[in-house]
Structures are given as C-alpha cells and as structure tokens.
Amino acid sequence: MNYGWQKEPLLPLSPRMSYGQMRMILYQVAPDLHVASARLPGKLDGIYCLATNTVLIDRRITYTRKRCALVHELVHWRHGDDTSNGCNGGKLEQRCRRETAILLIDPAEYALAERMYDSNPYQIAAELNVTVQVIEDYKNWLHDSVAA
Ligand SMILES: [Zn+2]
C-alpha cells in the first residue's frame, strides 16, 4: 500500500473499512483515545478535544459521513490539532482534508469510478462510500501532485 504523504502508516485504516470496523481497530491501536458519539452543535460532524483526548462524532449523521468525520478527526488527533470549537480553516485544515481523502480513497478504485461515472462527483462519492467533499479534496490533491 502506498501511504503517500505519510512517513510511516499513521493509522491502520483502509479505504473500505466501515465506521464500526474503524472504531474496533482504534480500541486496539489507540487505547488512550476516547471516541464517542454525541449531539454536536450546528453543522459539526466531528470534533477532537486535545485536553481530554476525545473524538466526538455527531450521532445523527449517516454512516458515510461518520466514517469521513472519524478519519478527519483522527488526522487532527495525530497532528495534535485541537478542534473542540470546530475546524477553523487555514493551512492545518487543508492538510487535514488532504490527508483524510488519501486515507479514505483507494487510487485504483477512484480511477475506475471516475471512468465509470464520467467524473460525476456525486456518483463517485456514493460508489466509494465517502462524502462529495472528500472526493473534491482528493481531486484537488491529485491535481496538485501532478502540477508539482
Ligand atoms: Zn478539520
């Protein structure tokens, strides 16, 4: 597996893992990290609180969104970014979104889906079980890495 930007595999996650499988694996590899569901205010899907080492995922969103929110907050956790007041944009957030997309998308499956659905981001997102946002982030990353 190509981890791209990662010096070493940060997280033993693979793109096809369900939300439940991710939660199970975290119990083993990160026993000090607390992951729970909650009713989060506003449009927040997830937060990471550095002080209590806790990831909270909104309980009302779909499993697809939960999966993406969990990986997103895990990337913040690995970098030590506190998002307990929500993500606030900027460079850290861009990095997190890029890394989240790379963790959630298998390059071969993405290439296949892109051909199959004629680059329609909604259909590709449904096929790969991620949000459209993750697809857009992945596309931007692909574009940047070709340009670099
Ligand atoms: Zn974030």
What would your notes on this structure say?
- Helix 2 packs across helix 3 (90-104), helix 3 (90-104) crosses helix 6 (132-147) and helix 4 (107-116) crosses helix 5.
- 28% of the residues are buried.
- The chain has a 3-stranded mixed β-sheet, covered by helices on one side.
- It has a single domain (19-147), classed as Zincin-like (2-Layer Sandwich), CATH 3.30.2010.
- The chain has 148 residues and is mainly α.
- The protein has 6 helices and 3 strands, in the order H-E-E-E-H-H-H-H-H.
- It has helices at residues 19-29, 63-79, 90-104, 107-116, 121-128, 132-147, and strands spanning 34-38, 46-49, 54-58.
- The protein binds zinc ion.
- Zinc ion (ZN) binds at residues 72, 76, 83, 87, 93, 96.
Topology:
Blueprint: H1 19-29, E1 34-38, E2 46-49, E3 54-58, H2 63-79, H3 90-104, H4 107-116, H5 121-128, H6 132-147
Parallel strand pairs: 1-3
Antiparallel strand pairs: 2-3
Helix pairs in contact: 2-3, 3-6, 4-5, 5-6
Protein name: IrrE N-terminal-like domain-containing protein
Domain IrrE N-terminal-like: 52-135
InterPro entries: IrrE_HExxH
